[in-house]
């Protein structure tokens, strides 16, 4: 009769459902595990795997302008070919994270920063433009800002490292040297968790810069 299934049709439908369950579930589990599996580094994306003629590409993470002198001095003596200066900024009052690419001599209309935050970004951009100028084209620099929740900021850093195929991520230590020479908390302990998560999940080498005054030492090069 119309509207009723025969026993043969019911049997066929049951077989289809069982087959779909047996096939789809393993495929979904495999895909999910692939998503959770961290990126595996390969030789060309680690410092130890670099060859003499390889590009030395580095992400230099900047939490505040205080990190700039130490970072640029380390880069000076490392002879890198590409620097991606990355300003780490906590996401406040927005629903989605942002990656802002700073272009030379241009204003970013998409930058929703308050004056203090914008001033920090401008200071970082200017410092790394000067760094690039000092090296007369031997090192290319791109300055970016990540605006992201601290809990997931490491994912954005690692994704950028993957995209730019860098060999090392330089991270700022979560403490700064005080006037008495001792290391003091800089008021943002969450950066420690960001550092730990980046080191655990990075697709390349990682390093933490503990600035004990190297940023105040002038570095001279020889031609």
UniProtKB/TrEMBL annotation:
Residues 83-215 form the Cation/H(+) antiporter central domain. It comes from the Eukaryota. GO terms for biological process: inorganic cation transmembrane transport; monoatomic ion transport; regulation of pH. The chain crosses the membrane at residues 9-32. InterPro entries: CHX17_2nd, CPA2_transporter. Keywords: Ion transport, Membrane, Transmembrane, Transmembrane helix, Transport. The keyword Ion transport applies. It holds the Pfam family CHX17_2nd. This is Cation/H(+) antiporter 15.
């Amino acid at each position: 009769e119309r509207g009723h299934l025969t026993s043969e049709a019911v049997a066929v439908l049951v077989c289809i459902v069982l087959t779909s369950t047996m096939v789809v579930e393993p495929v979904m589990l495999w895909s999910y595990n692939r998503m959770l599996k961290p990126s595996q580094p390969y030789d060309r994306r680690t410092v130890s795997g670099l060859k003499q003629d390889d590009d030395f590409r580095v992400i230099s993470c900047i939490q505040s302008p205080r990190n700039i002198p130490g970072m640029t001095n380390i880069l000076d003596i490392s002879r890198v070919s590409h620097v991606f200066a990355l300003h780490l900024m906590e996401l406040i009052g927005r629903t989605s994270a942002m990656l802002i690419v700073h272009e030379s001599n241009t204003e970013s209309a998409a930058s929703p920063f308050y004056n203090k935050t914008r001033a920090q970004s401008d200071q970082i951009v200017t410092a790394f433009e000067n760094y690039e100028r000092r090296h007369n084209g031997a090192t290319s620099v791109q300055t970016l800002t990540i605006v992201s929740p601290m809990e997931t900021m490491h994912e954005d850093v690692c994704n950028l490292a993957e995209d730019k195929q860098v060999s090392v991520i330089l991270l700022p230590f979560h403490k700064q040297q005080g006037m008495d020479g001792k290391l003091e908390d800089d008021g943002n302990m969450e950066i420690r968790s960001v550092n730990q998560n980046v080191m655990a999940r990075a697709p390349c080498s990682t390093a933490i810069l503990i600035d004990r005054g190297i940023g105040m030492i002038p570095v001279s090069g020889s031609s």
